[in-house]
Structures are given as C-alpha cells and as structure tokens.
Amino acid sequence: MLKLTYLSHSSFILDDGTHTLVIDPFLSGNPTAPMKADDIEAQFVVLTHAHGDHLGDGLDIAKKHDALVIAVNELASYAAAQGAKAHNMHIGGAYNFPFGRLKWTIAHHGSSSPDGQYMGEPAGVVITMGGKTVYHTGDTGLFLDMQLIGERDAIDCMIAPIGDNFTMGIDDAVKAVEFVKPGLAIPMHYNTFPVIEADPDEFRIKVAEKGFNARVMQFGETIEL
Ligand code: NI
Ligand code: MN
C-alpha cells in the first residue's frame, strides 16, 4: 500500500503506513501550497535539486523532525553543513532505505542553492515503497534515456513537469510518458507562478489519446496507488 499526497508544485508525500517521505517540500512562499511546512511530518526528505522551489522548507522540516535528507552528494553535504542528517548519493546509484529502494536518475536542468552555491547535478528519482514504484522526474527537459528508466524498473506512477519555460511543457511530457510507459502519469510543476501556467487536463487528455492513464491531482489531494 502506498499513499501519495500532492502538496502542489513538485512536492509529494509518500506514505506506506509506517514510513513518511516528502519530496521537494516547497510550501513557504508557494501561493498554491495547501498546508504549511509546520504541518508536514516526515522521516525522510528527498531533494531532487537545490533551487528554492524544491529545496524549499526541506532543511527546516528535516531538522524539526530529525528526518534524513536524501540527495546527490553536493546537496546532501550542504544539508549536513546546515545541521540536517543526510545520506549522500549520486546519479545511477540506488540504496535500500527502511522505506524501500531509492535510485537517482539524470535530469537536464541546473542546481544551485538560493545563496548561489554549486549544488551538483539535478536529478530525478525512482522510489520503490509499499509495493509500488514511483518515478519523480525532478525538473527536466525531455530526454530519450527515459526509455531506459522505464525498462530498468516497471514504473507504477510517473510524476512529470508540464509547466514549460523551466522544464518540459505538455507535449514533451506526453512524449516522456510514451517513453517510460507508467501505469499512471501525474502532472506537476504548473500553475504555481504565471510563467508556468498550463492546463493539466490537456495533459491528461493527450496522455489518454496515446493509450496511457493520467490523473490530475488536486493540491492537497491524497490517492492510494
Ligand atoms: Ni529547478
Ligand atoms: Mn522548479
């Protein structure tokens, strides 16, 4: 059993009934956030990259709950230097955590901290937890190696950006779904700010036209995968 909660933008909570993991918790300063950082309780904080709309409240949540930050080496070291517990990894590497297996993938994007430091490569993440495998692409453009990600792990749920400008737009995200062939596709990284306005129903319809399932999650909604 795996419950997935959408906190808006790129932020999701994964909960298997025993472990709670939050990805890219950007709540403070996020006009679409359905709750405050103080309301988030997690034992694991997964950060795809260090941009402010992903690092967000991650270190505060980690320190408050003594949660483990999981990120690529440079960002994990930064988290540790700020006083959080951290597990350093890198792209291509997987590790078995108490909640399950987590593996980092490439993402085509940038990654610097809000104070301008180099934070290593941005990444996507494949998490197997509660009997389900979720691929959160992080911020990225479309890339053909997504086919390989879908071949290496059967993806039950793929979470992909559709907001364009900084990441894939709708049509590239639909192509990404065709590459990965997930059981379910969920759009993210849209309508937080005017520059990334997009219609998630257009994504859902276009994915369905290609023979795949997509679902638009409301901000704050929880579903069981
Ligand atoms: Ni970014
Ligand atoms: Mn972003």
Task: Give the helices and strands, then pairings.
Blueprint: E1 3-6, E2 12-15, E3 20-23, E4 44-46, H1 52-55, H2 58-65, E5 68-72, H3 73-81, E6 85-89, E7 94-97, E8 100-106, E9 123-129, E10 132-136, H4 146-152, E11 157-161, H5 170-180, E12 184-188, H6 200-209, E13 222-224
Helix pairs in contact: 4-5, 5-6
The protein binds nickel (II) ion and manganese (II) ion (MN).
Residues 51, 53-54, 139, 166, 189 line the site of manganese (II) ion.
Q: Count up the domains.
A: 1
Helix content range: 10-25%
CATH architecture label name: 4-Layer Sandwich
Strand content: 25-35%
Number of helices: 6
Terminal Cα separation, in Å?
7 Å
Average residue-wise pLDDT: 98
Ligands, deduplicated: nickel (II) ion, manganese (II) ion
CATH class: Alpha Beta
Total DSSP E strands: 13
Topology pattern, helix = H, strand = E: EEEEHHEHEEEEEHEHEHE
Structural class: alpha/beta
What low-confidence regions span 5 or more consecutive residues with pLDDT below 50? none
Task: Assign the CATH topology.
Answer: Metallo-beta-lactamase, Chain A
The radius of gyration is: 16 Å
Which strand order spans the largest sheet, edge to edge or round the barrel?
A: 6-5-4-3-2-1-13
Please give the largest β-sheet.
7 strands, mixed
Shape: globular
Task: Let me know the CATH homologous superfamily.
Answer: Ribonuclease Z/Hydroxyacylglutathione hydrolase-like
